[in-house]
Amino acid sequence: AKQFLVVGAGRFGAAVATTLYELKHEVVVIDEDEEAIENIMDKVTHALIADATDEATLRKIGCSNFDAIIIAIGENFEANILATVAAKSLGAQHVISKAKDLLSARVLERIGADMVIRPEHDMGVRLAGQLSSPTVIDALEMGDGHEVIEVEISAKLCGRLAELRLPNRFGVQVITVSRNGEITVSPHADFVLQDGDMVLLVGHSEAIDKLRTYLA
Amino acid sequence: AKQFLVVGAGRFGAAVATTLYELKHEVVVIDEDEEAIENIMDKVTHALIADATDEATLRKIGCSNFDAIIIAIGENFEANILATVAAKSLGAQHVISKAKDLLSARVLERIGADMVIRPEHDMGVRLAGQLSSPTVIDALEMGDGHEVIEVEISAKLCGRLAELRLPNRFGVQVITVSRNGEITVSPHADFVLQDGDMVLLVGHSEAIDKLRTYLA
Ligand SMILES: Nc1ncnc2c1ncn2[C@@H]1O[C@H](COP(=O)(O)OP(=O)(O)OP(=O)(O)O)[C@@H](O)[C@H]1O
Ligand SMILES: Nc1ncnc2c1ncn2[C@@H]1O[C@H](COP(=O)(O)OP(=O)(O)OP(=O)(O)O)[C@@H](O)[C@H]1O
């Protein structure tokens, strides 16, 4: 189990804190609003009413003991900046800050936040990706330039794998096929893809893009 | 290319609209705020100043012509409800509504929204999942109860696949291994996993959970 500090128990901060606690980690939450602390105190390890911009408070809590610190303050940008700077200077390994817009995100990156999240914007981009190609249900980018996509088979991809020649035409390989709850890993060249099969394909990101365009 | 209507050009709505337009779809945006429309009009197909609760306006735009309608109004819950109801009654195929909290989400589901998103909450849950098991870099849930996870190999999973016996011990199979930019699909039983390899594993969701607990 790991230890996390969450600063700000708004909708985003509270969701991070309670989910980490459900996953059996130790979670400390601070917020200057009494009501926010009352709502969360039985769902995390510790919840304290405190001002995150007060360096003495952060020093007492011990920033360097946490695997990550999440600064989930939105509207009060000055408080977000001060808390992020204080956490980094007190030795926090990994600081993740929420930004309310692109400009704030740029400033937070420059002052040392290890990761910056814009919940509304990032969620909007993710939804657009899902709506854009419904045949591509989900995708997973691997760190090395390869990508895996989950595709629901329609007429364009029905038939024997040997005849579809996906590696030659696109540079992608089928790694699993799932039909009626049964999964086949590394299907043979004689396997016949049918309408409605859920298939995982892997390839270089450019190859996957070529396939996405063909399917759109 | 598909057609989308986005109601409300706040941070979430604007991100959905501009991303769909960049992916070459037709996007119409309406918002009652002139400044929001000015900021977005050169990044989408059409942007109109209008009140989304006015049924005559929605009838003129033609709700049933869109592949999906995204109602991205947050604070003004009454407007969100009225726009969602009007869109469904005018024949919209797929209505996605943003909710500002759990209670609003429940109401929107009951009045007919096909999908409800809480950007701050949903992003918080997603971040917690990523922080909880850093060895599990990403995951993809397949519709049929199977899941694929991307794991960075550490001491707990080093060694020959035949000796690790992952299918017997956890019910999971290695489908790809990526090392220094080279990807191996369906590795042989003699393949030796090394520290730092990026590996994709597939299995039933319960089996993947067992592995996640072992790795945490
Ligand atoms: N200096 C501070 N110290 C501690 N907590 C703070 C400080 N400033 C703001 N907060 C808290 O941070 C929380 C989140 O603030 P924010 O302005 O992002 O609200 P929000 O928009 O409701 O957040 P969300 O969009 O995640 O729901 C609030 O509960 C607020 O009390
Ligand atoms: N009846 C309406 N008709 C059209 N647009 C509306 C209506 N009511 C609100 N809006 C618009 O919806 C947009 C989003 O409203 P919301 O209250 O969610 O703002 P927000 O919190 O800034 O959104 P986000 O969190 O996505 O940035 C605003 O630009 C607002 O002008």
Keywords:
homodimer, 216 residues, alpha/beta, Rossmann fold, 5-stranded antiparallel beta sheet, 9 helices, 13 strands, 29% strand, binds adenosine-5'-triphosphate
Number of domains in the coordinates of chain A?
A: 2
Strands of the biggest beta sheet of chain A: in what spatial order?
3-2-1-4-5-6
Biggest contact = A-B, 62 and 61 residues
- Derived structural class of chain A: alpha/beta
Shape of chain A: elongated
Strand content of chain A: 25-35%
Instruction: Write down the oligomeric state.
Output: homodimer
- What do we call the CATH topology of the largest domain in chain A? Rossmann fold
CATH homologous superfamily assignment of the largest domain in chain A: NAD(P)-binding Rossmann-like Domain
Walk me through this protein's architecture.
- Two copies of one chain form a homodimer.
- With 216 residues, chain A is of the alpha/beta class.
- The first copy, chain A, folds into two domains: 3-123, Rossmann fold; 133-215, Regulator of K+ conductance, C-terminal domain (Alpha-Beta Plaits, 2-Layer Sandwich).
- Chain A is 38% helix and 29% strand.
- The first copy, chain A, has nine helices and 13 strands.
- Chain A has helices at 11-22, 34-40, 55-61, 77-89, 102-110, 119-132, 161-164, 166-169, 205-215; strands at residues 3-7, 26-31, 46-49, 68-71, 95-98, 115-117, 136-141, 146-152, 159-160, 172-179, 182-185, 192-193, 198-204.
- In chain A, strands 3-2-1-4-5-6 form a six-stranded parallel β-sheet, sandwiched between helices.
- The mean pLDDT of chain A is 92.
- The structure holds adenosine-5'-triphosphate (ATP) (2 copies).
- One adenosine-5'-triphosphate binds next to helix 1 and strand 2 of chain B.
